[in-house]
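Bench log, entry 3. Co-assembly request; chain sequences pasted below exactly as received.
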Amino acid sequence: MIELLWPALLAGTGIALIAGPLGSFMVWRRMAYFGDTMAHSGLLGVTLGVVLNIHLTLGIALVTTTLALLLFVLQRQRRVPPDTLLGILSHSALAIGMLVLAFSDSVRMDLGGLLFGDLLAVNPQDVLWVALVTAVALPLILLIWRPLLAITVHEDLARAEGIATERIRILYLVLIALVIAVAMKIVGILLITALMIIPAAGVRWLSNTPEQMAIGASVLGMASVWLGLAVSWYSNAPSGPAIVVTATVAFVVLMGVSQAKRPARS
Amino acid sequence: MPDQPRTDALIRARHLGVRLGGEPILNHVDLNVYPGQIVTLIGPNGAGKSTLIKALLGIHRVTSGELWRKPGLKIGYMPQKTHIEDSLPLTVDRLMTLTHRARRTEITEALKLTNVPHLIDRPVQQLSGGEFQRVMLARALLKQPDVLVLDEPVQGVDFNGEIELYRLIQRIRDDRGCAIVMVSHDLHLVMAATDEVVCLNHHVCCTGTPESVAQAPEFTQLFGHRHADALAFYSHEHDHEHSLAELGGHSHD
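Structure output for the full assembly:
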């Protein structure tokens, strides 16, 4: 029986590992809604994968990456404010995905599983995809860590000091798109952003450096995945919500502990 | 203003123009920066002061004219007062080394120049306005720049702190001989410590020593007759306005 759990456990661990640093940047750069928008487009990616007869993960990665680049370009205009733009793209991507899914006969998929994750749907091939993405993403994150941090603190300053800001930002967006693509089966498209931002926000209370926060977010994310999958396994609950609730409980506990520790400081 | 030809310029802009999002922000700007010189950019809000600075730094692309920087020129930049998100745990020493690594002794040395070495391990969010600006000034000094570019260096600093900070900037110039280009609103404070004032309103309205600029009719037009009065600057009437279309053919000498 337990061998059925292994693929989800392994895949979840890899995802949480890279979600830590990427999610920390999402918190610092106020991009949670941005991540949500990219995740919501994942549903369209599923359909694309089925229609083109390619692996679903690849289909999702194609769509989320395209959306990321589209957002990058669209954010240069000023007429539509960023949050409105994200709202339009986020909801329309979700709606279009649902419609296409409803109209295509060839796609027989458990919608609940797509939206909220289904650990039993994770197969060894998915684990390979996660391993591949992790193997590519981790070194890339290390590579862009310092420049992206500089851009996050002050974009003009980073640029004046010789950083290719646009290239770094695009690379970051593509990394998020990739994580979303491989994370969908386990946490579902509606909850992927939660796995990225909740652990990061939770360890903020304990961190004194950006690195502590990123590593802490990875650790807390992995713990949330393990505990959440265990809960899901024993209670038959959908895996995504189980993982997210676990992470949220950790967030609340960490907040409580840190507030109790230093009541005088702000 | 008799301008003796000098060949030792660090930065030289000729007829420089910058458009942002299709809008012409700067037109036909001429500017020279020489070693050890303090150049102060003044002008009303939206006149393009920050844009000019960012063009000099290579942040904004120059869309017309020429910009020459001495090869290998090191520029230290202190941007306008910035807010760093509380969500980002960042200490002063990390802020100092965001883009260029430095040894802790070097960081401390730089912080000593602005009298804030004790702040090195402090989270940046806990700094006062004056402390933050001093840290940013030290940061700009860290890589021994030939030119310091300061965008409203005293923003968010109380009045006494302002005077101190301007004195500090002048002392840095005296000690290190680096050139300083700064944007300022504090006409009355800056004038005394400035070698060259550039009065900007999308184009260079007038330029020269503080005394000569103060007497230029363009300056009076831009800042009103009470320019000596500190308050005059903040309440002046904008009777010196050019339509953007007119700017192209417009030149002052």
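The radius of gyration of chain B is 18 Å. Chain B touches chain A through 22 residues (CB under 8 Å).
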